[in-house]
Each structure stands twice: as C-alpha cells, then as structure tokens.
Amino acid sequence: MKVAKWYNNKDIRIEEVPTPRPGAAEMLVKVMACGICGSDIVEWYRLPRAPLVQGHEIGAEVVEVGQNVTRFKPGDRVFIAPKVPCMQCDYCRKGHFPVCSVIKERLPGGFAEYVLAPPTLIEHGTYRLPEKFTDDQSTFIEPLACVVRAQRLAEMHQNPAVMVMGCGMSGLLHVKLARANNCSVIATDINPKRLDRAKSLGAGITIDAAADHVVERLLAENGKPADVVILCTSAMSAVEQAWQCVDRGGVVVFFTVPGPEKQVTVPINKFWTREIRIITSYYCGPPDIVDAINLIETGSIIVDDLITHRLPLTDIAKGFQLVMDGSESIKVIIKPNQ
Ligand SMILES: [Zn+2]
Ligand SMILES: [Zn+2]
Predict the structure, then answer these.
(1) N or C terminus of the chain: which is more exposed, having fewer CB within 10 Å?
(2) What's the pTM value of the predicted model, to 2 decimals?
(3) Residues with CB under 5 A from ligand 1 (ion)
(4) How far is the CA of 268 from the centre of ligand 1 (A)?
C-alpha cells in the first residue's frame, strides 16, 4: 500500500509498504478521507517523531477484522481517535483526558491507503459513523471535538461575547460553535478573505488585525471588551491583543500557542485585580468526541462549507503547501483511496 511519509513540510514522500494484516484483536481499515490539520504543519511539534506518517482526522471503512473483534465488521464506517485515555487514572477521573499517559498505543497515520487499528483503540476510540455522515464530514470530528473541549473548559456563561483571534480552520469552527451556542462573536485575522468567511458564518464584528487597531475597534463596535478570547493563531501580536481585549472576569484561551522559542509575558498584576483567567486547551477527550459527532449529525454545526480542497494521496505535498500558505484553503482533505 501507499503511505505519505512526512520528513518535514518540504519533504513528504509517497512510499510503498506492505499492507498490514490484522492479528486476532486488530482491525484493518481503508482510509476514505483524512484531513490535514493545522497542527500537522507545525514542525517544532511534529519533527521529534519524524519521519512519520501523519493524519489523525480520518473517515474510514473497516475491511478486515481479527477473530476476537466483535464490535465491528467489514463494511462498517468509522472514525478512530488517534489516541485514547485510560479513563481510570487520576488525570482521567478529573477529566484531564489529554494528559493521560497510561495507554501508549497510537493509531498509525491516516495519510495511507490502509490503517491497522490496535486493540485499545478499537475498544475505546472507535466510533461508528451515523448513516448519513459522509467520510469527509468524519474528518471534522477530531478538530471539532478539540473546539468543543476548549469552549467547555472556558466555562462560558450566558451568551458571552466571544473573540476568536485567527480565522483558519479551527478559528472558523470556534466561530460556528460559539454562534450555535448563542454567543456573539468578534473575529480577527490579517486575511480579509478569511474575515469575510467568518462574517458569513455569523461573526457580528470582524476586525482586520493588519489594518485596524484591534482594541479600539473592539471597544467601538462591541461597547466593551470580550468575555472570552480564544487564540487560534500563533502570532505574538495576537497574544498582546488578547491581553487587552479581555473583559474583567473574562478568560483567555490558548487554543494555539506561539511556539517554544517565543516568550509570552503575562500582565499578571492587572489580571489579578480583574479576575481574568488564562487557560490552555490541547486535544480532546471522549465526551468531546461524542458531542462533536452529535453536533455534526444534527446539523447544529455544518462543516461541509469549510472544505476547499480534496486531493489524492499522491498530491499530499500540494495539500501541505495549501495549508501552510493558508490564503486559499480552509479544510484540505486527502482521499487515499480515490
Ligand atoms: Zn487535528
Ligand atoms: Zn488515564
């Protein structure tokens, strides 16, 4: 079978490897769709494990199951989480699923024609797709679950004003989820096309961070600072703006971080007297995945309008280029079996 092995963003090779055969407790799935995630192009985050086959946003079809696998059968359409928490350790019991390190197995990358699912992931991380769910929609389950988790952790009260900084794929999902929950939304970006899209998805106020003074525009149009500020860009300028855009009693959510070489300075004295919280949100947990599937299935969150490109596996380098460039693309989906 073919896999796309990632050495770095400029060097992705299509390689031929033996198609795995499932052992008694394993299952082989055919990857029908796999999204390129914004985190896939973050080299400082991915390079320590390179070369590797990336791809953790999959829509797949079961083709072969081991004799001990009873929950799934060939023909089932599934989403499989890239890793799963144990649900029993102290971290899991407190809901900190992403930091559980008990289960070491990971799902092999989805930028491949087939993926061999290990037993723990079949048991705890595999979700059968609802009938009308498409393979392409399945690629949004993981990214939306991460967004669900971030807004859950932000503990947003009664119709807050949510400011989303950075309107790439995840920023736009944040806009959609906040709107679905009756929040008013302020969106910022330096790309006018992305801002237009945020506006069409329900952002009431859009601010061009390259051309406008973000804080002044926010205060002029919203009348007050934002209750929740969600950082969906690694730009340091956005972090500085976030500090100034959050209201008393509000929260700044680091959904994206600036990177290990950057130093962030927190105006902690100002925040202390204003009860401003700073939180981080990384990855997602099983309850978030269940919520994400539900939101897509019920149409509460429409994802199809975010798909801009569908490419065969052999064009994956172009796909990464599109995501890195970010001006024309939102969601780029690789279709390894087309
Ligand atoms: Zn992702
Ligand atoms: Zn655990």
Answers:
(1) C
(2) 0.96
(3) 37, 143
(4) 31
